[in-house]
Specification:
By secondary structure, the protein is mainly alpha-helical. The protein has helices at 7-12, 20-26, 31-68, 74-81, 85-106, 115-135, 139-167, 170-201, 207-227, 243-253, 255-272, 278-285, 293-318, 320-339, 346-371, 380-405, 417-439, 442-446; strands at 407-408, 414-415. A two-stranded antiparallel sheet has the order 1-2.
């Protein structure tokens, strides 16, 4: 259901004050005048919706950047702390594991409370953990800070997508999901290159990117309170003490919802398997310089940003499953190419990464829109937090497995990276099979 404004909100927007005098006045307006008022109201409603979408995208941007920046910082962190690739993968996976655990525990509670209040609390905790990362002086303290950031940050994504599901109907949800999912592209286009550049300006200090994210988050925090409307329509009027646990169990007992959670985990696992060691692979194995790496995120991010907006709309028109299937098949080709890439001109490398980002975005936008439609509204909060938790479970498994498969030889080159690529391709094919079983016919039912 689209968000319905209260009378006071309409007054603040300088529309119609819904009191008795306004109702009397409406009787004396001409049809043309009523059309003008209705048009102005619709335009203001659209503006309100886009304010919300932009805020949610900004929140998504900060917690995605906080997680995303760890991968290009591998070349900073491993020599700084003198840690192995396996230890670095545990550092990356610690965020995902804590986010998974927190999501499972809080899924029992989130549907009892206003989503706006929940988002305020978890985003505050996330900022505290991120700032702690920027102040950590040792590897153990950084690990603790990452766990703290994950405990709260891992819940943000589920809340953001639950809010979109509450405010946008299915036929428009692809557009909204695309806009919010584009935060990933903005993090790649702006966040990662700027963060690396600022870190280099401060004598290659890896602490700076986390402090930068914390500063942006502090600016956004009050906007959650002032921009988002109350989001409590999903709360049941009568709820027994054990009903929330029962609702959570229903998510797992429902075959469609259970398959949707497995689908989410496979999707994230297949995508993330090659990410943790992509940067050192490009530098140590292929000889591309550290200064060239930000260009990979810049070009890939631009491609991802544009494709998120375009593919979101196309999925609404052509069918979300159709766009998803094409994106998965083409992304498998890109995974094989990137993990078996010979030494080629850097422009070709950028082309490969741009296409990989495009097809990855196509998978993500359509998957989120399809997943959001398999659960009833009163269970949306619990399900979407569980769904976010399964995303983190997939990234943790991917990081854990890649850390064991990839090894570093005496020349500091990575070995067996192509094995991780083959595993990614298999997982994505499994994901494609689950999607075909689960979502086939969904677009036809919505028409």
């Amino acid at each position: 259901m689209m968000y319905q404004f209260t009378g006071s909100e309409l007054t603040n927007l300088k529309l119609i004050n819904f009191d008795l005098s306004s109702l009397i006045l409406l009787q004396f307006l001409s049809f043309g005048e009523l059309i003008v008022i209705a048009t102005f109201a619709a335009f203001s409603l659209m503006k309100k919706e886009w304010y919300i979408v932009c805020l949610l995208a900004a929140l998504n941007f900060t917690h995605i950047l906080d997680f995303m920046i760890m991968m290009p910082l591998s070349n900073y962190l491993m020599p700084y702390f003198n840690i192995t690739p396996h230890q670095f993968s545990l550092l990356v996976g610690s965020y995902s594991l804590s986010a998974f655990i927190a999501g499972i525990l809080l899924a029992i509670l989130v549907d009892k409370y206003d989503r706006k209040k929940v988002l305020l609390i978890v985003y505050t905790g996330f900022l505290l953990g991120t700032i702690a990362c920027g102040l950590a002086p040792s590897f153990p303290l950084l690990m603790i800070a990452r766990v703290t950031a994950g405990l709260f940050g891992g819940i943000i994504g589920g809340q953001v997508f639950s809010i979109i599901t509450d405010l946008f109907p299915y036929e428009k949800r692809g557009m909204a999901m695309g806009a919010v999912t584009s935060a990933f592209a903005v993090a790649a286009i702006v966040g990662v290159p700027v963060s690396l550049k600022v870190a280099n300006m401060f004598h290659y200090d890896w602490h700076v990117p986390f402090l930068l994210v914390g500063f942006v988050g502090i600016v956004l925090l009050p906007l959650i309170y002032f921009v988002l409307p109350p989001l409590n329509d999903h709360i049941r009027e009568k709820e027994e003490g054990g009903s929330r646990v029962e609702a959570l169990l229903k998510v797992f007992k429902n075959p469609n919802q259970g398959f949707a959670l497995v689908f989410t985990m496979l999707l994230m696992m297949g995508h993330f398997l090659i990410i943790p060691f992509m940067t050192p692979y490009m530098e140590f194995n292929k000889g591309y310089s550290k200064d060239q790496i930000p260009l990979v995120y810049l070009v890939g991010g631009i491609a991802s940003f544009l494709s998120a907006l375009v593919l979101g709309r196309l999925s609404d028109k052509w069918g979300k499953l159709n766009v998803f299937v094409i994106s998965v098949l083409l992304s498998i080709v890109m995974v094989w190419g990137l993990t078996n890439l010979p030494v080629v001109p850097f422009a070709i490398v950028l082309l490969f990464f741009a296409l990989w980002f495009v097809f990855g975005t196509g998978r993500s936008v359509t998957a989120q829109a399809m997943i959001s439609n398999v659960v009833e509204k009163e269970q949306q909060g619990s399900f979407m937090v569980l769904n976010s938790s399964m995303q983190h479970a997939g990234t943790f498994l991917a990081s854990f497995l890649s850390g064991y498969i990839v090894i570093e030889n005496k020349n500091e080159k990575l070995q067996h990276f192509e094995w991780v690529g083959y595993l990614s391709m298999v997982v994505l094919l499994l994901c494609l099979g689950v999607a075909w079983k689960l979502f086939r016919g969904m677009d036809k039912k919505q028409m």
